[in-house]
Structure formats: C-alpha cells, structure tokens
Hints:
Radius of gyration of chain B: 18 Å
Shape of chain B: globular
Oligomer: heterodimer
Strand content of chain A: under 5%
Largest sheet of chain B: none
Structural class of chain B: mainly alpha
Structural class of chain A: mainly alpha
Order of helices and strands of chain A: HHHHHHHH
Strand content of chain B: under 5%
Amino acid sequence: xxxxxxxxxxxxxxxxxxxxxxxxxxxxxxxxxxxxxxxxxxxxxxxxxxxxxxxxxxxxxxxxxxxxxxxxxxxxxxxxxxxxxxxxxxxxxxxxxxxxxxxxxxxxxxxxxxxxxxxxxxxxxxxxxxxxxxxxxxxxxxxxxxxxxxxxxxxxxxxxxxxxxxxxxxxxxxxxxxxxxxxxx
Amino acid sequence: xxxxxxxxxxxxxxxxxxxxxxxxxxxxxxxxxxxxxxxxxxxxxxxxxxxxxxxxxxxxxxxxxxxxxxxxxxxxxxxxxxxxxxxxxxxxxxxxxxxxxxxxxxxxxxxxxxxxxxxxxxxxxxxxxxxxxxxxxxxxxxxxxxxxxxxxxxxxxxxxxxxxxxxxxxxxxxxxxxxxxxxxx
Lengths: 185, 185
C-alpha cells in the first residue's frame, strides 16, 4: 500500500509542476527544487545541483530529465515512469485540446490577423535570451566563432542540427584527447 | 498501411528530436523545424511559428507541446479522423521522451561516475557554445516573408525584443502582439 501511495505522490507532484509552469524547462527547475528538496527532502541540495548538471547535459527536455532522475532516485525505474507521466500529461492534454480546436479555426480571418502580430513577437522571444544564455554557456570572444558558425551552417546551408551536435561532441572529445597526449609528452 | 507508415515516420522523426535535442527548449527548435517543416513537410513555416507561440502560452516544455500538436495535425491533415490524430499525438510524445528515459536511466545508474567526468565535460565543452548557435538559428530560420510581412512586423519584433530583455512576461507580450495584430491588419 505504501508503495502505491509513493508512486501516486510522484505522479501528482510532477503533474502539478507540468500543469503550472509556463515557458518550459528552465522555469520548472525552481519549482521542482522547492518540492523535492525543500518540502519532501527526497534529495539533498548539492545532489540536486549535480543532478541538474547531468540532466542538462543529456538530450531532451530538461524538465523531463529532472523528473526522470527524481522518480528513479525515489522509487527506481518504475518511479521514473510515474514522474515522467506526471510531467508529460498536462501539456499533452492541453495541446491536444488546442490542436483539435485550432486546426478548425486556423484559416479564420480574425485568428489569422492575431497571428500576424504574434509571429514576429515569437522570433523576438527566441532571440531575446541569447546574450545571457551565451554568457552562462561560456561564450567569450575567443570561442564566439562556434555559435556563429553553427547558426550559419544550420540557417543558410540547411544542415541538420543532428550533425552539428555530433560534430560538436566529437570535436570536444578530440580536443580533450589532444590536450592529454600533449601533457603526457 | 498509409496510416501505419505515417505513424512510423512520426515516431522516427520525434525519436531523433529527443535523441539529438541537447540544451532543451529553444535549442531543440531548429531540429524540430528541420525534421517537420523541411524534411517531411508536415507543416509550413508559419504554422510552425504558430505552434511555438502556442507553446509559449501553454504550460510544459516546447518539445512536448510541438510533439503533441504535430502528431495530431499531421495525421488529421492527411484526411484521417481525429481519433487517429490523438493516437499520432501520443506516438510523438512517447517518441520524443523515449531517448530521455533510456539515457537518464543509464545516467542515474552511473551518477557518481558521471559527476565531473572529464569525458562528459570535454564532450560538452564545444557542444555548450554550439547550442547557443542552435538557438540563434532557431530565430533566424523563422525570419521568413510569411512571418515578417512588412515594416510593422519589424516594429513588433523590435518592441518585443527590448521588452523581453527587460524581463517583461512572455505570455503578456504574446497577448499584446496578438491584440496589435488584430488592430493593424
């Protein structure tokens, strides 16, 4: 009985987090921390920070990765399934309802006029955090060429970001290997 | 059979998005756009922009939101009923989450070895600044004649960019630009 309650609790906590955070991943982190570190005390604060670093270095939505870690930590693999379901379901339900309605009204004149105003705003919202994100990702003058080259290659040459990611990982590792052999000599 | 092929193609596309979507959120956008708009042509650039706008005003990570929306709209636009659309939506959401589930399960098992692991750190050393480039390309790829119809679009873009850097709530900004679109166009 106790375990069923624990699974359910995992599901509920992440359902709540999934339902009430707008703006995706980064907005969810403080809420998750508040629930699992401060209130429930399932995880120590320094472990949470280490876990966050790993969740961010894995592919996929950060909120999902964090939910998976916490669920796993609490109740193993099955626990991670419950926390993942919790964090996914709210967006799934909301978007499905919107998709059902919006696909009907998409060509409506009023809706189209509203979206003519919204579309350039969306582009601005994506561009706005670039500077601060760049700073925290360690972009300086000396490695500014990396994001610039990536943006140009993906935007102008239509190269799939998949290859960019692979190339960046390989470059990073070979740079590390190069430095290591240089030190060993 | 045609429906099965579509489901399979959606699954593969979103599995790729989940697997190579480092950096979460906006950094996943160029990958989603590359798969959905360029490769499979399941939707147009302006429809894709509308989905990003919807994602920014609804709870949950952008990857889930676009998976749920595209799964539904790609299936129904091929002429299948909305019940099949819901299944498509579920398939995409599952597919985009699956790589995280596998990788985070492994990462949790090797957590203590992954902490400060030099291999992981070196793989990320170039990937991190590259992710900034991916976000920049997400914005650049949306600068199209459909999204920027005339000078008024650029005024909206500039205003929202400044307001967003000044930390004005994105949901409010989308709402306001929708109202402005309704008045202007």
